[in-house]
User: Which sequence fits this backbone?
């Protein structure tokens, strides 16, 4: 049986760990050539690269600061030159908010969050489109947002602004790119056990307390994201654009 992403080239930003790493593995298992990027941790990215090589998965590894406009342009040109095309873009790289009251939040702090979480997808999506070839078909942009694209909380003005902005950025882009056959969708995770939820990962009591608000009764794992990511990247989702898939165990509708 043909794999769902055979002969596709997929860029997954921030794929050296967490959700991005899991998506990259899932895409590779479905036949895609995966281009993984890391920001700072080259050693961790190289370990992942070795694991992909051991499984004979075609891939590339690049250092990338998604908040650096010129770095993004050069990266997409390099990938296109090396691999011939880019079919799928997963804007996964992100950072947590500052968890600080607005009156104490510096401009630099606010800007840092938006530069990664909102400008990053903007820079990457624009660069992806600038290397897109008219002969390609079934283009895909998948943005990893958060339930906080809808759900606000005190002390997270920077994070909520970045994820809420990404929601409407995606919807606008979906309308713009539909005539080109490129779909744009979001995956919005809830409480997923990654380094971004390190306190819950390390402390079972914290994890159980936070899970009380989740109707399905547990925190999610990175693997819970994979099926939705493969679906949105494949032809199975050819009639889906401008949508958000919430993967949160029901948390969004219970807060």
Assistant:
């Amino acid at each position: 049986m043909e794999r769902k992403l055979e002969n596709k080239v997929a860029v997954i930003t921030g794929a050296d760990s967490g959700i991005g790493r899991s998506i990259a593995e899932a895409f590779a298992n479905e036949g895609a050539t995966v281009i993984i990027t890391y920001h700072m941790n080259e050693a961790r990215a190289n370990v992942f690269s070795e694991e992909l090589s051991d499984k004979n998965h075609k891939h590339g590894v690049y250092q990338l600061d998604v908040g650096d406009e010129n770095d993004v342009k050069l990266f997409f040109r390099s990938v296109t030159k090396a691999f011939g095309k880019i079919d799928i873009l997963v804007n996964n790289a992100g950072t947590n908010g500052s968890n600080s009251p607005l009156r104490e939040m510096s401009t630099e702090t606010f800007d840092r969050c938006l530069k990664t979480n909102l400008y990053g997808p903007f820079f990457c999506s624009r660069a992806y489109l600038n290397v897109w070839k008219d002969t390609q078909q079934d283009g895909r942009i998948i943005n990893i947002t958060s339930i906080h694209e809808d759900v606000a909380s005190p002390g997270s003005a920077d994070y909520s602004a970045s994820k809420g902005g990404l929601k409407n950025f995606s919807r606008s882009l979906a309308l713009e790119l539909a005539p080109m056959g490129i779909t744009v969708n979001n995956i919005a995770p809830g409480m997923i056990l990654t380094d971004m939820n390190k306190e819950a990962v390390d402390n079972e009591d914290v994890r159980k307390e936070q899970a009380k608000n989740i109707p399905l009764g547990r925190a999610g794992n990175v693997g819970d994201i994979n099926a939705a990511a493969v679906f949105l990247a494949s032809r199975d989702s050819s009639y889906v654009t401008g949508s958000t898939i919430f993967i949160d165990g029901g948390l969004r509708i219970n807060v």
In short: The helical segments are 18-29, 42-54, 69-83, 107-131, 157-177, 198-202, 204-211, 223-233. The domain at 9-254 is CATH 3.40.50.720 (Rossmann fold). The first strand starts at residue 9 and ends at 12.
